[in-house]
């Protein structure tokens, strides 16, 4: 069967579950080990029986078993890297890439003269944030934690591939770092922030770990936990940076102000104009303030 025919057949199957045809393309590129431009160039190429059988089995995992395509192929593209993901970790989202890039900008703007920086990623999951920041900024000495041993195992595999210097601790949020007596220039986190009773897409709810999704009745449980303990982890001149739910900004500014009354607190919008990042600047004078909303 020609690749063109395989895609056409797959498109019809995907339509039965409202799946986009790009899923078929992702599966084919993974099986054939080619890039997207090669796939388009090879549409009239005959697909081997073995590759077709593999494709059919993988497509059925999505259509019939309702598995995320990222778990099927075993990776997600994030900040220019294919990061390993499986059912033990949350699939990294594009919105989180914006947090990574903003953190790297913050390092350039406010830590330019530092020879080295101590940074921590609390609740690291797949290690997407920790690995990406550490891989892009060689001055960073990165630490990361997660309460899930299985998640830490995945994060370590990603770090081994892209940022071998990342150090991991197993434990609940900030607890292992407090116990170790560590201090940081920057604290990062994308904690679980979906309210427990909020309706979630079935593909997400049925597959991704709930411990990485839900953040208590109001979705703020883990922010409160981190912010209430963060002062003992931070150096005098420091930054906290969070990804947040689009409707949580006002409430989180109030929580952050309670624990960091003298800090500058800013809410930053994502590319879609939604409030998606919260930054807390301790003893740092901001350069301009064009992105400020709070």
UniProtKB/TrEMBL annotation:
<dbReference type="InterPro" id="IPR007848">
    <property type="entry name" value="Small_mtfrase_dom"/>
</dbReference>
<feature type="binding site">
    <location>
        <begin position="190"/>
        <end position="193"/>
    </location>
    <ligand>
        <name>substrate</name>
    </ligand>
</feature>
<dbReference type="InterPro" id="IPR019874">
    <property type="entry name" value="RF_methyltr_PrmC"/>
</dbReference>
<dbReference type="GO" id="GO:0003676">
    <property type="term" value="F:nucleic acid binding"/>
</dbReference>
<feature type="binding site">
    <location>
        <position position="190"/>
    </location>
    <ligand>
        <name>S-adenosyl-L-methionine</name>
    </ligand>
</feature>
<dbReference type="GO" id="GO:0032259">
    <property type="term" value="P:methylation"/>
</dbReference>
<dbReference type="Pfam" id="PF05175">
    <property type="entry name" value="MTS"/>
</dbReference>
<feature type="domain" description="Release factor glutamine methyltransferase N-terminal">
    <location>
        <begin position="5"/>
        <end position="74"/>
    </location>
</feature>
<keyword id="KW-0808">Transferase</keyword>
<dbReference type="Pfam" id="PF17827">
    <property type="entry name" value="PrmC_N"/>
</dbReference>
<feature type="domain" description="Methyltransferase small">
    <location>
        <begin position="115"/>
        <end position="205"/>
    </location>
</feature>
<keyword id="KW-0489">Methyltransferase</keyword>
<keyword id="KW-0949">S-adenosyl-L-methionine</keyword>
<dbReference type="GO" id="GO:0102559">
    <property type="term" value="F:peptide chain release factor N(5)-glutamine methyltransferase activity"/>
</dbReference>
<dbReference type="InterPro" id="IPR040758">
    <property type="entry name" value="PrmC_N"/>
</dbReference>
<dbReference type="InterPro" id="IPR004556">
    <property type="entry name" value="HemK-like"/>
</dbReference>
<dbReference type="InterPro" id="IPR002052">
    <property type="entry name" value="DNA_methylase_N6_adenine_CS"/>
</dbReference>
<dbReference type="InterPro" id="IPR029063">
    <property type="entry name" value="SAM-dependent_MTases_sf"/>
</dbReference>
<feature type="binding site">
    <location>
        <begin position="123"/>
        <end position="127"/>
    </location>
    <ligand>
        <name>S-adenosyl-L-methionine</name>
    </ligand>
</feature>
<dbReference type="InterPro" id="IPR050320">
    <property type="entry name" value="N5-glutamine_MTase"/>
</dbReference>
<protein>
    <recommendedName>
        <fullName>Release factor glutamine methyltransferase</fullName>
        <ecNumber>2.1.1.297</ecNumber>
    </recommendedName>
</protein>
<comment type="function">
    <text>Methylates the class 1 translation termination release factors RF1/PrfA and RF2/PrfB on the glutamine residue of the universally conserved GGQ motif.</text>
</comment>
<comment type="similarity">
    <text>Belongs to the protein N5-glutamine methyltransferase family. PrmC subfamily.</text>
</comment>
<feature type="binding site">
    <location>
        <position position="146"/>
    </location>
    <ligand>
        <name>S-adenosyl-L-methionine</name>
    </ligand>
</feature>
